[in-house]
Design brief:
Chain A is mainly α. Chain A contains 15 helices and no strands. The two termini of chain B are about 45 Å apart. The chains are: A mainly alpha, B alpha/beta. Chain B: Belongs to the ABC transporter superfamily.
């Protein structure tokens, strides 16, 4: 995380332009730019700013958003902290990711198992074709297709997902259904293909032959004998895709006007709101690391060799 | 006696390079209830394929092209998948060669044991758990009440093999296919498993097909024996007839393999300097000592066989001699001069003097290099020969290993048979012009006839070139045929050493005695006699544990 924080800080600060110029626009005079920079501490050398930021991070103070500052009354009651700004967005994104995961993971694993069971049949090929084409098309394309079919032609779900605080759960769920379905289409292919490959990889092993020679049904052979041993790679690919659901949903959020962290991130980059951008990056990195760590732990738990040493 | 299994005109084909090639060319087989048939043959004879076919099963890329497999009136070739599933595990069961690979690593033994009975509605779960424990007890597994609740990796190979036999018995089948169940085991473990299998098969009057390449093993287990060669039946007879009066030449040649015996060389003079002297070696992997105070000498032109079971430290000793694993204490001397412990500190000439031949010729040869390149590399590295001279030397070496240079120089290892690959391994060691060669289980992966050819070649080379061998093996028959001296190792210690003639005549050290007595003999009464003489709890690993 420490290394990641350095990379993020340096990268963000290398972005051309700065907040002062961006906010003053055409009317910027060198004096007013310098004034704002000084107020925001942007005139300090980079290393000093980095350590200020780092100390803030370690004490869970994500800083103050530039954009929301009241310049006339600097540091006064009008300022909004980054944390306050991010928290609702993050929870929205997490909500969307959870809904998607609840649909996509069981779907992908089931499809993978069935594809492995009926491998090289029409079903297997159809499942492969469908998931591959959904992953190969751009997300916004999938999104618009879903809007066309499920919102315009058959108005089942609303096409705008402008959820807000205090909205009842069922309505929230309904509104976020279209983005969730879009994301499902995007992430299912990976997980399904990995499940299928991991299982088929094991089908040549002696214990699978043994299971067949015990007269077990093909379904039982795969679910009971192949799947438990294929879990480690499957868990890893699921973790990667979950991380993607948190960090890579910018396009989908924009299409559906979903107030998630991705949109906030893009808006902040546009106006050079550096503290927000940095905080978002850090949250993305943390999500990646946390999910991969969880995947590693689960892989160990799913392996009796590591769970029960000799 | 009533007929259980009838195979008629069975033809099986395997797919390779887009065409179907015959594996089995029309084999007949008959088995009565409660009868045990031994199927023997070399690798590629089609033993396992027939074994699986008698369950109506073929591996991927293999198909039954003709013939019938009739089990109790049901033709398994034509039967539907559902019909076969209802028989497999319930009335026909399978015991695989490697129990470690054939138990699912993700489930406990008892869960895999009860799967058959519960899925086939033979018994409920708690009932079959009880039965499993009972079977474990009958098969004399240690802690029968508790062992089933472990995962496969927590149980030793010999115990797993017995647990797998118990699993096959879980539905009390009419027929069990044993596919080389003891091939991967040490002799002392093998004998326990053999005794357990035989007892339980007799007790439940189960018919069995026992597949193996080891004649002495099949002699103990089978009522009748069928010999196979490249997918054809050679002959079939009851066990005693087959052993005492084989009809076909091929069978006789199999029987004769064990007769190759090289006379023991005269002992060296007492003041001779040994070529290799291992002095009080103690070595460790990490912080655990695996060798304890090992010492022995190897004299010029002599073969020292280092014998022991897996984990006894044979190969570790070889690693110490070659300098791959510098010992923690002790030293290695070559021609009386102490060598640096680490191979990186040895001179090129010191490295040249000691060469190695490996067990798996398959993996020890670079698959992308031609035979000429593989042998030419050490010729150039150690001998400094290049161009035509190098070529000439490689040809000379190919002549020595009895492979025609013009035919083999440009071939790749994949185009050679197992025995030929091992010969190339020998030529590569000879290319350095060494005095001393370590042979690490060089014949273990080979069929008996091929192995015998390799042993004869090594013996000839020794006579012509005055080589010294350190011969690592777990096979006492090999020791008997070529060793001059024997070093017996156990748990990283030398338990006994001396000239071969002494080692093979009593009195022995207790462990040597146990090793020797555990090697199956061609006598069909051998196992029964041994059990009678020693008692069932005094054979194999159980006896080792008491030492």
């Amino acid at each position: 995380m420490f290394v990641v924080s350095i990379v993020i800080f340096v990268a963000v600060n290398l972005l051309p332009g700065d907040f002062a110029e961006a906010i003053l626009g055409q009317g910027a005079t060198p004096e007013s730019v310098a004034k704002i920079r000084q107020d925001l501490g942007l005139d300090q050398p980079m290393v000093v700013r980095y350590f200020d930021w780092l100390v803030g991070m370690l004490t869970f103070d994500l800083g103050t958003s530039f954009a929301q500052l009241n310049f006339a009354n600097f540091g006064g009651a009008g300022s909004v902290t980054v944390a306050e700004q991010i928290a609702p967005r993050l929870s929205n994104t997490m909500f969307l990711a959870t809904v998607t995961a609840c649909i996509a993971v069981p779907l992908a694993v089931t499809l993978g198992i069935l594809a492995a069971l009926y491998r090289n049949t029409a079903f297997d090929k159809a499942a492969n074709m469908f998931t591959l084409s959904s992953i190969s098309s751009p997300e916004f394309f999938m999104a618009y297709i879903l809007i066309l079919f499920l919102a315009v032609l058959n108005p089942i779900f609303p096409s705008l997902s402008n959820i807000f605080e205090g909205m009842p759960f069922s309505e929230r769920l309904e509104k976020s259904m279209l983005p969730a379905l879009t994301l499902t289409l995007v992430v299912t292919a990976h997980m399904m293909r990995m499940t299928r490959a991991a299982i088929i990889n094991l089908l040549a092993s002696p214990y699978i032959e043994m299971a067949r020679l015990k007269g077990l049904s093909p379904m039982r052979v795969i679910v009971k004998h192949a799947l438990p041993n294929a879990l480690a790679p499957i868990i890893n690919v699921i973790a990667l895709n979950l991380a993607y659901l948190i960090t890579g949903v910018v396009v989908v959020e924009v299409v559906f006007v979903y107030p998630g962290i991705g949109q906030l991130f893009v808006d902040s980059v546009k106006i050079r709101d550096i503290p927000v951008v940095q905080a978002c990056c850090l949250i993305f990195a943390a999500a990646y690391i946390l999910l991969n760590l969880t995947a590693d732990i689960l892989s160990i738990v799913s392996n009796p060799r590591l769970r029960h040493p000799k | 006696m009533s007929r259980l299994l009838t195979i008629k005109g069975l033809k099986i084909e395997g797919r390779s390079d887009e065409t179907w090639n015959p594996i089995i060319n029309g084999v007949d087989l008959e088995l009565n209830k409660g009868e045990v048939l031994g199927l023997i043959g070399e690798s590629g004879a089609g033993k396992s394929t027939i074994g699986l076919a008698s369950m109506g099963y073929t591996r991927d890329g293999v198909r039954i092209s003709d013939g019938t497999v009739e089990f109790d009136g049901i033709d398994l070739v034509k039967a539907s998948a559902a019909t076969k599933r209802s028989l497999l595990g319930k009335r026909i069961a399978y015991v695989a060669q490697s129990a470690a690979a054939s138990f699912n690593p993700a489930h406990k033994l008892i869960d895999q044991h009860t799967e058959g009975p519960t899925q086939h509605n033979v018994a409920g779960r708690s009932e079959s758990v009880q039965d499993g424990i009972e079977l474990y007890r009958k098969l004399r597994l240690p802690n029968p009440d508790e062992i089933g609740f472990r995962y496969p990796h927590q149980v030793s190979g010999g115990q797993l093999q017995r647990a797998m036999t118990a699993m096959a018995m879980s539905c009390r089948p009419d027929l069990i296919i044993f596919d080389e169940p003891t091939t991967a085991l040490d002799v002392t473990t093998q004998i326990e498993v053999l005794a357990a299998i035989r007892e339980i098969v007799e007790e439940f009057d189960t018919a069995a097909i026992y597949i193996t390449h080891d004649l002495a093993v099949v002699a103990q287990m089978a009522d009748k024996i069928k010999v196979l060669l490249r997918g054809d039946e050679v002959e079939e007879a009851d066990t005693r007839t087959m052993l005492s009066a084989p009809k076909e030449d091929y069978t006789k040649s199999l029987w004769a393999v064990r007769e190759f015996q090289r006379p023991q060389q005269p002992s060296p003079p007492a003041d001779a300097t040994p070529v290799v002297s291992v002095r009080n070696i103690t070595a460790a992997y990490g912080t655990t000592d695996v060798l304890h105070d090992v010492s022995f000498d190897i004299h010029a032109g002599r073969t020292v066989a280092v014998v022991g079971e897996s984990g006894s430290g044979k190969s570790t000793t070889a690693r110490c001699i070659t300098g791959l694993l510098p010992p923690r204490m002790g030293e290695i001397a070559f021609d009386g001069k102490v060598l640096p412990a680490d191979y990186r500190k040895r001179t090129k000439d010191q490295l040249r003097q000691a060469q190695m031949i490996y067990q798996m010729a398959d993996t020890a040869l670079n698959p992308r290099k031609t035979i000429g390149e593989i042998i030419g590399r050490p010729v150039q590295f150690y001998g400094g020969l290049t161009g035509a001279k190098r070529r000439e030397r490689v040809n000379e070496l190919l002549d020595q290993i009895e492979l025609e240079p013009s035919q083999y120089y440009n071939r790749l290892p994949s185009e050679l048979s197992g025995g030929q690959k091992q010969r190339v391994g020998i030529a590569r060691a000879l290319a350095a012009d060494p005095k001393f060669i370590i042979c690490d289980e060089v014949t273990s992966a080979l069929d008996q006839l091929v192995a015998e050819g390799i042993l004869r070649l090594l013996a000839d080379l020794q006579d012509n070139l005055g080589l010294s061998y350190m011969f690592i093996t777990h096979d006492l028959a090999t020791v008997k045929s070529i060793a001059d001296e024997v070093v017996v190792m156990k748990d990283g210690k030398v338990v006994e050493q001396g000239p071969k003639t002494e080692m093979f005549t009593p009195p022995h050290h207790a462990y040597t005695d146990l090793l020797l007595s555990s090697v199956p003999e061609m006598d069909p009464d051998w196992l029964s006699d041994l059990l009678k003489e020693r008692g069932v709890d005094n054979i194999g690993d159980a006896a080792v544990d008491k030492m």
